[in-house]
Design a protein that fits this description.
Blueprint (H helix, E strand, L loop, with lengths): L1 E6 L3 E3 L4 E10 L11 E8 L7 H16 L5 E7 L3 E9 L3 H9 L9 H14 L6 E8 L10 H13 L3 E7 L5 H10 L1 E7 L5 H12 L2 E12 L3 E6 L4 E5 L2 E10 L4 E9 L6 E16 L2 E16 L1 H6 L4 H24 L3 H16 L7 H18 L5 H16 L20 E2 L6 E7 L4 E5 L10 E2 L10 E9 L6 E10 L36 E2 L6 E8 L2 E6 L9 E3 L10 E9 L5 E11 L2
Parallel strand pairs: 2-16, 4-5, 4-7, 7-8, 8-9, 17-22, 20-22, 23-28, 26-28
Antiparallel strand pairs: 1-3, 3-14, 5-6, 10-13, 10-15, 11-14, 12-13, 15-16, 18-19, 18-21, 21-22, 24-25, 24-27, 27-28
Length: 612
């Protein structure tokens, strides 16, 4: 394992105190990627009713692809859960992928979400095959909130920490808009694994690929770093979201795993007292240890790296160039903290303060935009989008998840394909719509791995370049017309100059609309009525869309209908036609309303039988 460091300002001024960022990188040696460790994976799949349709279909497809990436020496177990937990594949070597595929293909949606039961069963299976020479990990997939079994988030997070201490890592994957991101991030952090937000079901395969790329290129595990500052230096802050502990002046940081495909980075801010002695100076000593596999056996490696700077007169220090890469990386980490602060304020209902906090960062970053990279420019567009959503009081569960995911990935990972993911909330509806581009340049918005990106499609421009474009106006598949594009200062992307219009087919032209127009009012919902005499006579659907899922379960001699979509209480009764009730059948209704006393629900609108 190779260890390097870079300072944001390698030359510090004499006679005055200063602050400097240090960025330490742990990466694979040139030949480290050749030795692949065998995997011991437990795949835990949420099959609750809310996963019905596209979420479960895409989760199963992604699981098929995960199996294809595994080797015969790897072990795999598969657990599914709704109210009940089922081991559909006991731990086996991955020698018959077709047979495992048949098991996956039989998984279908059911009832509620016993997340704890499914996860603990997955841990149990991984433990039965556990070995220090293998990678022992549980992959927990869910789209909802734990509403059966152990439901207390703090208890589940503490349990994930205990399992990690015993050598079993937990990675969590949240689907859709209803899961508890604080719980899944907490479990991933405590469990020393990763968290992924799968906003659209189609993104599942890409996320599984990223996780498997890492597991297949593991260089070192349980990397732990101790920063021991010099007497005149203090560790002011650890900028990443890693686990750390201060002991006196020393700071111990747990960085987790190092992959050949993804270097692990540690960023810290150091406070340096004034000094009158010019020349080289030791700011700190970095000591590290990690576990690696050598010739089939686990071995601990240790090392020590002195962190040095140079002290010089103030004029010389001011003239020395700052390291742009360090500044970019540490800016990304500080912005991640601001996003968490905005979430905290918004959760308390203080949306104006949350927006102001984001706008403050935008103002600071805007001073750097002329020479900024696309990543920093994109960060500004993202922040402006979220600030606008807060100001228009359209802060919702999806926006919160995007902010939390962006903060988490910035603070723990070092992959561009995981940075600044998010596709919700944008709309081109407020733009003037024209059917003729005239002399303008045509752009198109496309989805790229959990992100919305804009590229030019007009000849004479580089179609591979990203275009800096308002996130609030991005809508997948929409084409735009702009007056002009200018190339960025670093020559790697375009910026829009002038007005932006939407390009439409003839007959759909219209003037620009004000943003935030109130949606058309809906009529008062009415209780569902059916003429069908059984579930078999109902119209069918293969997707849930914006509907709500109902399931019928046997309770004694009765068939009780319950709501199994997330956000509803499955223990409350629901007014639902008796003639069509059949045990374990899933239904999709247009809407659910709650009785005035909060004691039960009423199914409203059309009812369809969900076909899986």
């Amino acid at each position: 394992m190779k260890v390097t460091y870079t300072l944001s300002h390698p030359v510090l001024p004499l006679g005055t105190s200063s602050k400097v960022d240090v960025l330490v990188t742990f990466s694979a040696e040139a030949d480290a990627a050749s030795a692949r460790r065998s995997l011991n994976l437990g795949l835990v799949i949420d099959r609750s009713g809310s996963m019905a349709g596209a979420p479960l279909k895409n989760a199963i497809q992604a699981s098929h692809e995960l199996v294809e990436r595994m080797s015969p020496e790897d072990s795999l177990s598969i657990v599914t859960y709704d109210d009940t937990v089922a081991t559909v594949l006991a731990p086996v070597k991955v020698t018959d992928k077709a047979a495992i595929g048949k098991v996956l293909s039989k998984v279908s949606a059911g009832g509620c979400t016993n997340l704890s039961g499914g996860w603990l069963k997955g841990v149990e299976h991984v433990k039965s095959q556990q070995s220090g020479e293998r990678i022992n990990r549980v992959l927990l997939l869910t789209d909802g909130r734990a509403n059966a079994g152990i439901q207390d988030p703090e208890q589940l997070i503490n349990m994930a920490r205990e399992k990690s201490s015993a050598g079993i890592i937990t990675t969590t994957l949240g689907f859709g808009a209803n899961f508890n991101e604080d719980l899944l991030i907490g479990m991933a952090n405590a469990g020393e694994g990763h968290f992924y937000y799968i906003q659209s079901p189609e993104d599942a395969s890409g996320v599984f690929r990223i996780e498997m790329e890492g597991l297949g290129s593991l260089v070192a595990q349980n990397l732990e770093v101790v920063l021991k500052p010099a007497a005149t230096v203090k560790v002011a802050s650890v900028l990443n979201r890693y686990r750390f502990e201060a002991r006196g002046q020393e700071v111990t940081v747990g960085l987790g795993d190092v992959y050949a495909t993804e270097a692990r980075q540690l960023a810290a801010e150091l406070s340096v007292e004034a000094s009158s002695a010019a020349g080289p100076v030791a700011l700190a000593t970095l000591m590290f240890r990690a576990q690696v596999v050598v010739d089939g056996s686990v071995r601990e490696v240790t090392g020590e790296v002195p962190i040095l700077a140079h002290l010089a007169p103030a004029a010389e220090s001011a003239a020395s160039a700052a390291d742009k890469n360090v500044l970019a990386q540490t800016s990304r980490l500080r912005i991640a903290r601001v996003k968490d602060q905005a979430i905290e304020l918004a959760d308390k209902g203080d949306l104006p303060s949350a927006s102001r906090r984001l706008r403050e960062v935008i103002s600071e970053l805007s001073l750097l935009l002329d020479k900024a990279s696309y990543e920093l420019s994109e960060e500004v567009e993202q922040l402006a989008h979220y600030a606008q959503r807060l100001e228009s009081r359209t802060y919702d569960a999806v926006i919160r998840k995007e902010l939390r995911d962006q903060s988490y990935q910035a603070g723990t990972r070092n992959r561009g394909d995981l940075a600044l993911r998010g596709t919700a909330g944008g709309s081109a509806d407020s733009l003037e719509a024209v059917s003729d581009a005239g002399g303008g340049i045509v752009l198109e918005c496309v989805r790229e791995g959990g992100k919305l990106r804009v590229h030019t499609v007009s000849p004479g421009h580089d179609t591979s370049f990203n275009v800096q474009f308002p996130r609030s106006a991005r809508e997948e598949g929409v084409r735009y017309v702009v007056e002009k594009l200018e190339t960025s200062g670093d020559g790697t992307f375009y910026r829009v100059v002038g007005n932006i219009k939407r390009l439409v087919v003839p007959g759909q032209e219209r003037s620009a609309k004000s943003q935030g127009a109130a949606p058309a009012s809906k009529g008062k919902p009415t209780a569902s009525k059916v003429t069908a005499s059984s579930a078999a006579d109902l119209p069918t659907t293969t997707s849930v869309g914006t509907g709500v899922i109902i399931q019928c379960v046997k309770e004694g001699s009765k068939l009780r209908a319950r709501v199994v979509s997330d956000g509803y209480d499955p223990d409350l009764n629901i007014r639902f036609p008796r003639d069509i009730r059949e045990e374990n059948v899933l239904y999709v209704v247009d809407e659910i309303i709650t009785m005035a006393n909060g004691s039960s629900y009423i199914a409203c609108g059309d009812i369809r039988r969900l076909v899986q």
